[in-house]
């Protein structure tokens, strides 16, 4: 079997690295293609040091641009690679323009497309990522879902064949990286386990609107009177806090830090009491760590965590109110929402049965 994998953004590289390891174990030949859409591929990254990911066989060097321009360029160049390599299956990840381009090329050439992270749905329906997800799912032959809710989402759209609940490859990654978590931030700032909250805010709808960002600051200040908040500040957020004159209004109970790498961030989250975030990845990683999250977003792609009551959606002005409700309501941690940490192995087993 020949598998042609297409990636174009850093999160996709990380997921691919986990799947690649299992493909190699199974003796499956893989050709790795980097679209060049976003991520400056660098083997010194800690993920690739640990996972020992191979370098791409092809780099399409597409770069950034308008949606149509980028998608079109990737399709033109990727089609050439597909015609040359003649794969048995094309593997795509997530919801980027690279994902959409790879899926369309495979579908047009009648080569089975396998979509890792299929079935995720999120409002608003007109955002680019949602469009990419939906179209990719509808042209794919194999749909690898991270949760049972993702399976149900596909069923609602009439997609039932080739659908598999395999779990989330990011949980595989979490377990692989856990032995390397860095807890040095706790010692550096005198933080005590379960006595602080981790906060990250970076989405433009939260940071670029003065009213929203001001409400977030006010709510964090309120919470900090009851529990220490540790806030690694994204460059975009720092810029807007300064622009709106809000930096000086952040009270001393909110500890502002420079952005942290994955290992330090996971060490910090694992020992925290709670997470407040608008990050798609961190709201799920908090769950992996057994920590609840207040998600400062109108909707989330990880609705299953909201539906079971583990995570809570919040507007900018309601963060404190949601914090109080979480303090008073304890719930059970369902440990298998995203599988058992063997998602990549399951994906490869299904590919071998093709």
From TrEMBL:
Top-rank lineage group of the source organism: Bacteria
EC number: 5.1.3.14
Keywords: Isomerase
Entry's Gene Ontology molecular function annotations: UDP-N-acetylglucosamine 2-epimerase activity
UniProt domain UDP-N-acetylglucosamine 2-epimerase: residue ranges: 23-351
Family, per entry: Belongs to the UDP-N-acetylglucosamine 2-epimerase family.
Protein name: UDP-N-acetylglucosamine 2-epimerase
Organism, as annotated: Pseudothermotoga thermarum DSM 5069
Lineage of producing organism: Bacteria, Thermotogati, Thermotogota, Thermotogae, Thermotogales
């Amino acid at each position: 079997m020949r598998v042609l994998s297409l990636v174009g953004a850093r999160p996709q590289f990380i997921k691919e690295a986990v799947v690649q390891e299992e493909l190699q174990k199974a003796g499956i030949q893989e050709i790795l293609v980097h679209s060049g859409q976003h991520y400056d591929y660098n083997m010194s990254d800690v993920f690739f040091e640990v996972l020992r990911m191979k370098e791409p066989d092809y780099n399409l060097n597409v770069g950034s641009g308008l949606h149509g321009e980028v998608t079109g360029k990737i399709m033109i160049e990727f089609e050439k690679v597909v015609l040359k390599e003649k794969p048995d299956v094309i593997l795509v990840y997530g919801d980027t323009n690279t994902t959409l381009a790879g899926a369309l090329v495979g579908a047009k050439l009648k080569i089975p497309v396998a979509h890792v992270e299929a079935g995720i749905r999120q409002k608003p329906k007109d955002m680019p990522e949602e469009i990419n997800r939906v179209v990719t799912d509808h042209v794919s032959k194999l749909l690898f879902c991270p949760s049972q809710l993702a399976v149900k989402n596909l069923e609602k759209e009439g997609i039932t064949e080739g659908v598999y609940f395999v779990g989330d490859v990011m949980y595989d990654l979490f377990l692989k990286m856990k032995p390397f978590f860095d807890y040095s931030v706790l010692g550096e700032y005198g933080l005590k386990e379960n006595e602080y909250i981790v906060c990250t805010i970076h989405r433009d709808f939260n940071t670029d609107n003065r009213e929203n960002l001001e409400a977030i600051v006010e709510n964090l200040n309120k919470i900090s009177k009851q529990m220490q908040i540790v806030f690694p500040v994204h460059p975009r957020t720092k810029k807007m806090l300064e622009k709106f004159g809000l930096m000086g209004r952040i009270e001393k109970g909110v500890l502002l830090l420079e952005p942290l790498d994955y290992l330090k961030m996971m060490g910090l989250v694992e020992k925290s009491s709670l997470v407040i975030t608008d990050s798609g990845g961190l709201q799920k990683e908090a769950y992996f760590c057994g920590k609840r999250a207040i998600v400062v977003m109108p909707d989330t792609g990880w609705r299953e965590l909201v539906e079971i009551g583990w995570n809570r959606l919040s507007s900018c002005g309601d963060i404190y109110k949601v914090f109080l409700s979480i303090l008073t309501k304890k719930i059970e941690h369902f440990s298998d929402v995203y599988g058992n940490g063997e998602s990549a192995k399951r994906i490869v087993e299904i590919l071998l049965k093709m």
